[in-house]
Amino acid sequence: MSAQTQFYLVAVPAVIILGLSKGGFSGLSSLAMPLLSLVDSPVKAAAIVLPILIVQDWVSVWAFRRDFSSRNLIILIPASMIGVALGWLLAARVSDDAVRLAVGVISIAFVVYMLIRDRLGRAPVAKPGVPTGVLWGSLAGFTSFISHSGAPPFQVYVMPQYLKPRVFAGAATIFFAAVNLLKIPPYFLLGQFSRENLTVSAGLIPVAVLSTFAGVWLVRRVSAERFYAIILALTFLIGVKLTYDAVRALA
């Protein structure tokens, strides 16, 4: 089997996962990048996925254009620039195996966070503070740059505020739409927006759009608890494999 065939056998399911995430299975996108990192350079895979995310994000921005928390966005978006810059420095200065290790560790940490999140209980309502916002916004920018998985740091900061669901969704949508735009110059400087990569992105966008509509349809018909249990298990296993392979290669 050729390398190109192997790539598409993994890339198509990964993009379907991204579409399902945008269609209602929030958090599902955490599996896409670790999956692609099994068959390609993590930085190249992230560059291929980025245009797809931007198309999906700005459709969502239109839907939530009147529902968002301006204070959170004013704090988090500038802070995310710090994390994006750190992610760019990491990707530019270290090997693919080191980036693969970062993706693996982030994947494992995401699963652990998701497992303990609902067991922490409801804390007092928190106000969006600047110091904590800079910390979690930077982490969201960094993890988003490395593996398009900035949701956990964002949620750690915003969830204790107990925003209305549409306001929370709108803040998340606009924040990550802005972060994805911020990632364009660094990926360009890394030489990842080649004609080949952009051609692959364009070819996968219809799959992403169709799977987004499929997500909207499925979210009302599939047991979310069982679905997420499977996804979290796969994310953890892939994260372990990426970490193990990267440690062996670096050692």
Outline of the structure:
With about 250 residues, this protein is mainly alpha-helical.
Description:
- This protein is mainly alpha-helical and 251 residues long.
- The chain has one domain.
- Helices cover 77% and strands 0% of the residues.
- The chain contains eleven helices and no strands.
- Helix 1 packs parallel to helix 3 and helix 5 runs antiparallel to helix 11.
- The longest helix is centred in the C-terminal third of the chain and has 27 residues.
- The model has no long low-confidence stretch (mean pLDDT 81).
The assigned structural class equals: mainly alpha
Number of helices: 11
| Strand residue content | under 5%
Radius of gyration: 17 Å
What's the number of domains? 1
Unreliable spans: none
N- and C-termini, Cα separation: 29 Å
Helix and strand sequence: HHHHHHHHHHH
Give the % helix. over 70%
Major sheet description = none
Number of distinct beta strands? 0
Shape: globular
Give the rounded overall mean pLDDT: 81
